[in-house]
Amino acid sequence: MSENKNRAMVVGITGASGAVYGVKLVKTLLGLGINVHLVISNAGWRVMKEELGWETTDREAVLRSHFDGFSGSYTYHPVGDIGASIASGSFLVEGMVIMPCSMGTLSSIANGSSDNLMTRAADVMLKEGRPLVLVPRETPLHAIHLENMTKLARLGVRMIPAMPAFYFGPQSIDDLVAFLVGKVLDNLKIEHALFTRWGDHSEQPGE
Q1: pLDDT band at residue 6, thresholds of 50, 70 and 90?
Q2: Which fold has domain 2-187?
Q3: DSSP string spanning 94-114?
Q4: Where in this chain does the record put each Flavoprotein domain (predicted)?
Q5: What does pTM read for this prediction?
Q6: CA atoms of 128 and 136, how far apart (whole Å)
Q7: Structural domain boundaries of the chain?
Q8: Residues 102 and 15: beta-carbon distance below 8 Å
Q9: Could you give the percent of the chain with pLDDT greater than 70?
Q10: What is the pLDDT of residues 91-140, one digit of tens each?
Protein backbone atom coordinates (compact mmCIF):
# COMPACT_ATOMS: atom_id res chain seq x y z
CA MET A 1 0.00 0.00 0.00
CA SER A 2 1.58 3.27 -1.13
CA GLU A 3 0.26 5.23 1.88
CA ASN A 4 2.43 3.04 4.13
CA LYS A 5 5.71 3.41 2.24
CA ASN A 6 7.26 5.78 4.78
CA ARG A 7 6.05 3.90 7.84
CA ALA A 8 8.54 1.90 9.89
CA MET A 9 8.20 -0.54 12.79
CA VAL A 10 10.70 -2.48 14.88
CA VAL A 11 10.01 -6.21 15.26
CA GLY A 12 11.85 -8.41 17.72
CA ILE A 13 11.76 -12.22 17.73
CA THR A 14 13.09 -13.98 20.84
CA GLY A 15 13.69 -17.58 21.82
CA ALA A 16 10.20 -18.18 23.21
CA SER A 17 8.29 -20.90 21.39
CA GLY A 18 6.15 -19.51 18.59
CA ALA A 19 8.62 -18.18 16.02
CA VAL A 20 5.84 -18.55 13.45
CA TYR A 21 4.07 -15.60 15.09
CA GLY A 22 6.98 -13.25 14.49
CA VAL A 23 7.50 -14.43 10.93
CA LYS A 24 3.81 -13.93 10.13
CA LEU A 25 3.93 -10.44 11.64
CA VAL A 26 6.95 -9.43 9.57
CA LYS A 27 5.41 -10.75 6.33
CA THR A 28 2.13 -9.00 7.07
CA LEU A 29 3.79 -5.66 7.76
CA LEU A 30 5.93 -5.94 4.64
CA GLY A 31 2.87 -6.89 2.60
CA LEU A 32 1.16 -3.72 3.83
CA GLY A 33 4.11 -1.68 2.60
CA ILE A 34 5.45 -0.96 6.09
CA ASN A 35 9.22 -1.05 6.53
CA VAL A 36 10.52 -3.37 9.23
CA HIS A 37 13.62 -3.13 11.40
CA LEU A 38 14.15 -6.72 12.49
CA VAL A 39 16.05 -7.99 15.54
CA ILE A 40 16.32 -11.71 16.31
CA SER A 41 17.97 -12.98 19.47
CA ASN A 42 20.43 -15.87 19.33
CA ALA A 43 17.85 -18.07 21.02
CA GLY A 44 15.31 -16.83 18.49
CA TRP A 45 17.47 -18.15 15.66
CA ARG A 46 17.69 -21.48 17.47
CA VAL A 47 13.90 -21.69 17.74
CA MET A 48 13.47 -20.79 14.05
CA LYS A 49 15.68 -23.73 13.19
CA GLU A 50 13.90 -26.12 15.57
CA GLU A 51 10.30 -25.05 14.90
CA LEU A 52 10.36 -23.83 11.31
CA GLY A 53 13.20 -25.87 9.87
CA TRP A 54 15.10 -22.78 8.78
CA GLU A 55 18.75 -23.32 7.89
CA THR A 56 20.31 -20.49 9.88
CA THR A 57 24.00 -20.86 9.00
CA ASP A 58 23.71 -17.95 6.54
CA ARG A 59 21.27 -15.72 8.35
CA GLU A 60 21.15 -12.96 5.74
CA ALA A 61 20.39 -15.48 3.00
CA VAL A 62 17.56 -17.15 4.89
CA LEU A 63 15.97 -13.78 5.62
CA ARG A 64 16.15 -12.81 1.96
CA SER A 65 14.48 -16.08 0.98
CA HIS A 66 11.51 -15.36 3.25
CA PHE A 67 11.19 -11.57 3.34
CA ASP A 68 12.27 -10.28 -0.09
CA GLY A 69 9.68 -9.39 -2.72
CA PHE A 70 7.18 -7.48 -0.59
CA SER A 71 6.14 -3.85 -1.09
CA GLY A 72 7.74 -2.94 2.24
CA SER A 73 11.44 -3.37 2.94
CA TYR A 74 13.25 -4.84 5.93
CA THR A 75 16.53 -4.09 7.64
CA TYR A 76 18.12 -6.81 9.75
CA HIS A 77 20.04 -5.70 12.84
CA PRO A 78 22.17 -8.26 14.72
CA VAL A 79 21.14 -8.41 18.35
CA GLY A 80 24.64 -7.50 19.49
CA ASP A 81 24.81 -4.30 17.40
CA ILE A 82 24.07 -1.91 20.23
CA GLY A 83 25.04 1.02 18.00
CA ALA A 84 22.36 0.33 15.36
CA SER A 85 19.97 3.08 14.31
CA ILE A 86 17.07 1.75 16.39
CA ALA A 87 19.17 2.06 19.58
CA SER A 88 18.69 5.84 19.44
CA GLY A 89 15.56 7.79 20.24
CA SER A 90 16.42 10.26 17.49
CA PHE A 91 15.77 7.53 14.91
CA LEU A 92 12.05 7.71 14.15
CA VAL A 93 9.91 4.59 14.05
CA GLU A 94 6.22 4.24 14.91
CA GLY A 95 6.66 1.56 17.54
CA MET A 96 7.98 -1.88 18.37
CA VAL A 97 6.57 -5.39 18.72
CA ILE A 98 8.39 -8.33 20.32
CA MET A 99 6.60 -11.44 19.09
CA PRO A 100 7.05 -13.90 20.68
CA CYS A 101 8.58 -12.40 23.81
CA SER A 102 10.49 -14.63 26.20
CA MET A 103 10.22 -14.11 29.94
CA GLY A 104 13.94 -13.29 30.02
CA THR A 105 13.53 -10.45 27.53
CA LEU A 106 10.39 -9.25 29.27
CA SER A 107 12.24 -9.19 32.60
CA SER A 108 15.13 -7.21 31.12
CA ILE A 109 12.74 -4.59 29.73
CA ALA A 110 10.76 -4.39 32.97
CA ASN A 111 13.94 -3.81 34.96
CA GLY A 112 15.66 -1.41 32.57
CA SER A 113 18.47 -3.80 31.61
CA SER A 114 19.43 -2.74 28.09
CA ASP A 115 22.23 -5.21 27.48
CA ASN A 116 21.52 -5.95 23.81
CA LEU A 117 19.86 -4.26 20.85
CA MET A 118 16.47 -5.91 21.46
CA THR A 119 16.11 -4.62 25.01
CA ARG A 120 17.73 -1.27 24.18
CA ALA A 121 15.26 -0.67 21.34
CA ALA A 122 12.39 -1.52 23.69
CA ASP A 123 13.81 0.88 26.28
CA VAL A 124 13.88 3.58 23.59
CA MET A 125 10.16 3.04 22.98
CA LEU A 126 9.48 3.54 26.67
CA LYS A 127 11.59 6.65 27.09
CA GLU A 128 10.25 8.24 23.89
CA GLY A 129 6.63 7.37 24.66
CA ARG A 130 6.18 5.25 21.55
CA PRO A 131 3.99 2.15 21.31
CA LEU A 132 5.54 -1.06 22.63
CA VAL A 133 3.69 -4.35 22.24
CA LEU A 134 4.91 -7.57 23.87
CA VAL A 135 3.53 -11.01 23.04
CA PRO A 136 4.64 -13.25 25.93
CA ARG A 137 4.56 -17.00 25.30
CA GLU A 138 4.97 -19.03 28.45
CA THR A 139 2.82 -21.33 30.58
CA PRO A 140 2.28 -21.64 33.44
CA LEU A 141 3.14 -18.18 34.71
CA HIS A 142 4.66 -17.66 38.13
CA ALA A 143 4.48 -14.53 40.27
CA ILE A 144 7.65 -12.93 38.91
CA HIS A 145 6.36 -13.24 35.33
CA LEU A 146 3.08 -11.64 36.36
CA GLU A 147 4.74 -8.88 38.37
CA ASN A 148 6.99 -7.95 35.44
CA MET A 149 4.01 -7.85 33.08
CA THR A 150 2.05 -5.72 35.53
CA LYS A 151 4.96 -3.29 35.87
CA LEU A 152 5.16 -2.85 32.11
CA ALA A 153 1.39 -2.62 31.66
CA ARG A 154 1.34 0.27 34.14
CA LEU A 155 3.88 2.03 31.91
CA GLY A 156 1.54 1.69 28.94
CA VAL A 157 3.10 -1.37 27.32
CA ARG A 158 0.48 -3.45 25.52
CA MET A 159 0.61 -7.03 26.74
CA ILE A 160 -0.93 -9.43 24.20
CA PRO A 161 -0.28 -13.00 25.38
CA ALA A 162 -0.22 -15.70 22.73
CA MET A 163 -3.83 -16.73 23.41
CA PRO A 164 -5.64 -17.31 20.11
CA ALA A 165 -9.45 -17.21 20.00
CA PHE A 166 -11.80 -19.76 18.47
CA TYR A 167 -15.04 -17.81 17.99
CA PHE A 168 -14.21 -17.01 14.36
CA GLY A 169 -14.07 -20.67 13.34
CA PRO A 170 -10.36 -21.24 12.63
CA GLN A 171 -9.65 -24.09 10.24
CA SER A 172 -5.86 -24.27 10.53
CA ILE A 173 -2.88 -23.32 12.66
CA ASP A 174 -2.27 -20.45 10.26
CA ASP A 175 -5.74 -19.09 11.06
CA LEU A 176 -4.84 -19.06 14.77
CA VAL A 177 -1.50 -17.37 14.06
CA ALA A 178 -3.17 -14.79 11.82
CA PHE A 179 -5.68 -13.96 14.54
CA LEU A 180 -2.97 -13.13 17.04
CA VAL A 181 -1.02 -11.07 14.52
CA GLY A 182 -4.25 -9.24 13.74
CA LYS A 183 -4.77 -8.41 17.41
CA VAL A 184 -1.26 -6.93 17.50
CA LEU A 185 -2.01 -4.80 14.43
CA ASP A 186 -5.31 -3.66 15.97
CA ASN A 187 -3.39 -2.34 18.97
CA LEU A 188 -1.07 -0.46 16.63
CA LYS A 189 -4.04 0.93 14.68
CA ILE A 190 -2.86 -0.75 11.47
CA GLU A 191 -5.69 -1.87 9.19
CA HIS A 192 -5.74 -5.52 8.11
CA ALA A 193 -8.04 -8.36 7.09
CA LEU A 194 -6.42 -11.26 8.93
CA PHE A 195 -9.52 -12.62 10.65
CA THR A 196 -13.30 -12.31 10.72
CA ARG A 197 -14.38 -9.99 13.51
CA TRP A 198 -17.22 -10.71 15.88
CA GLY A 199 -20.37 -9.33 14.28
CA ASP A 200 -18.90 -9.41 10.76
CA HIS A 201 -20.27 -12.87 9.87
CA SER A 202 -22.42 -12.99 6.75
CA GLU A 203 -25.23 -14.96 8.44
CA GLN A 204 -28.46 -13.04 8.91
CA PRO A 205 -30.61 -13.43 12.02
CA GLY A 206 -32.76 -16.55 11.79
CA GLU A 207 -30.52 -18.30 9.25
Answers
A1: confident
A2: Rossmann fold (3.40.50)
A3: S-EEEEEE-HHHHHHHHTT--
A4: 9-188
A5: 0.93
A6: 22
A7: 2-187
A8: yes
A9: 94
A10: 999 999 999 999 999 999 999 999 999 999 999 999 999 999 999 999 99
Q: Please enumerate, by residue number, every residue annotated as part of a binding site for FMN.
A: 15-17, 41, 102-105, 137
What residues contact residue 147 under an 8 Å CB cut-off, 6+ apart? none
Q: What is the residue-wise DSSP string for 87-99?
A: GSTTS--S-EEEE
Residues 6+ apart with CB under 8 A from 145: 103, 106, 136, 138
Per the annotation, binding residues are 15-17, 41, 102-105, 137, 167, 183
Question: What does the pLDDT read at residue 203?
Answer: 47
Return the SS3 of 63: helix
Q: Which residues are annotated as a binding site for dimethylallyl phosphate?
A: 167, 183
Phi and psi angles of residue 190, each rounded to the nearest 5 degrees, phi first: -110, 120
Residue 36 clears pLDDT 70, i.e. is over it: yes
Identify any residues that bridge with 133 across adjacent strands, giving them in sequence order: 97, 158
Element spanning 78, H or E: strand 74-78
